[in-house]
């Protein structure tokens, strides 16, 4: 089943310095149809104004992935980590037994990012933070962790993963999930196969596509459950971000 969540229909908040849309229900008054998908409990589409940001605050027992779409994100935490994450890059933070951090717009344009929260497979553990730059990749294969081949064509890139054995090179997380990113050229079609016990949530970071015939616009999301194959066609150049769970 495909459950299309149109960007304009998502719950949202506007604090001036922060504008956010929620793909999943994060408040009791939120859309009850936008429930968690396995360990995937939060997917926020955030826009942070120049000089804006979140002051130091704490988390525990959650995996937090940040995918930067525009601008420059600054990070500091109580582990002593500091980072600068640019558009197309990803950071991961395993909160474990507890960590405090600050996130802020370090650039001169509005900062646009996806923040994704996952339940860990077990509570506790040492807090951890990491970041990595990833090249844009074109989807031409069902295999989500296939590297660039000898034909010179790029593959769907696994950005972060809790499946350590099969997704070498991805940022490690402690959840039964993986984050994938890809780009499609206008007119390109790809078929992506999901395992029998897996679900997925896909967001169109840029462009317009159809998935199994369902048209989707920029920043729309779609929850996929009991779907064996997703056929994705790009109507224009598109950037896709997806979390697989299970």
Automatic annotation (TrEMBL):
<dbReference type="InterPro" id="IPR003829">
    <property type="entry name" value="Pirin_N_dom"/>
</dbReference>
<feature type="binding site">
    <location>
        <position position="101"/>
    </location>
    <ligand>
        <name>Fe cation</name>
    </ligand>
</feature>
<comment type="similarity">
    <text>Belongs to the pirin family.</text>
</comment>
<keyword id="KW-0560">Oxidoreductase</keyword>
<dbReference type="InterPro" id="IPR041602">
    <property type="entry name" value="Quercetinase_C"/>
</dbReference>
<feature type="binding site">
    <location>
        <position position="57"/>
    </location>
    <ligand>
        <name>Fe cation</name>
    </ligand>
</feature>
<keyword id="KW-0408">Iron</keyword>
<feature type="binding site">
    <location>
        <position position="59"/>
    </location>
    <ligand>
        <name>Fe cation</name>
    </ligand>
</feature>
<dbReference type="GO" id="GO:0008127">
    <property type="term" value="F:quercetin 2,3-dioxygenase activity"/>
</dbReference>
<feature type="domain" description="Quercetin 2,3-dioxygenase C-terminal cupin">
    <location>
        <begin position="166"/>
        <end position="244"/>
    </location>
</feature>
<protein>
    <submittedName>
        <fullName>Quercetin 2,3-dioxygenase</fullName>
        <ecNumber>1.13.11.24</ecNumber>
    </submittedName>
</protein>
<dbReference type="GO" id="GO:0046872">
    <property type="term" value="F:metal ion binding"/>
</dbReference>
<dbReference type="InterPro" id="IPR011051">
    <property type="entry name" value="RmlC_Cupin_sf"/>
</dbReference>
<dbReference type="Pfam" id="PF17954">
    <property type="entry name" value="Pirin_C_2"/>
</dbReference>
<feature type="domain" description="Pirin N-terminal">
    <location>
        <begin position="15"/>
        <end position="118"/>
    </location>
</feature>
<dbReference type="InterPro" id="IPR014710">
    <property type="entry name" value="RmlC-like_jellyroll"/>
</dbReference>
<feature type="binding site">
    <location>
        <position position="103"/>
    </location>
    <ligand>
        <name>Fe cation</name>
    </ligand>
</feature>
<dbReference type="InterPro" id="IPR012093">
    <property type="entry name" value="Pirin"/>
</dbReference>
<keyword id="KW-0223">Dioxygenase</keyword>
<keyword id="KW-0479">Metal-binding</keyword>
<dbReference type="Pfam" id="PF02678">
    <property type="entry name" value="Pirin"/>
</dbReference>
């Amino acid at each position: 089943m495909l459950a299309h969540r149109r960007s304009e229909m998502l719950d949202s908040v506007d604090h001036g310095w922060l504008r956010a849309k929620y793909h999943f229900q994060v408040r009791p008054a939120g859309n009850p149809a936008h429930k968690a998908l396995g360990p995937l409990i939060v997917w926020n589409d955030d826009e942070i104004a120049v000089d804006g940001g979140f002051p130091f605050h704490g988390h525990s027992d959650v995996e937090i992935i940040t995918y930067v779409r525009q601008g420059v994100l600054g990070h500091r935490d109580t582990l002593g980590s500091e980072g600068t994450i640019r558009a197309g890059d990803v950071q991961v933070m395993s909160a474990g037994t507890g960590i405090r951090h600050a996130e802020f717009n370090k650039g001169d344009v509005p900062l646009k990012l996806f923040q994704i929260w996952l339940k860990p497979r077990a509570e506790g553990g040492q807090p951890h933070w990491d970041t990595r730059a990833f090249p844009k990749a074109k989807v031409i294969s069902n295999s989500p962790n296939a590297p660039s081949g000898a034909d010179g064509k790029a593959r769907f890139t696994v950005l972060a993963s809790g499946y350590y054995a099969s997704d070498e090179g991805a940022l490690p997380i402690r959840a039964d999930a993986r984050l994938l990113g890809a780009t499609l050229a206008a007119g390109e079609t790809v078929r992506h196969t999901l395992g029998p016990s897996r679900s997925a949530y896909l967001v169109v970071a840029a462009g317009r596509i159809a998935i199994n015939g369902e048209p989707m616009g920029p920043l729309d999301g779609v929850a996929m459950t009991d779907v064996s194959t997703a056929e994705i066609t790009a109507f224009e150049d598109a950037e896709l971000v997806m979390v697989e769970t299970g």
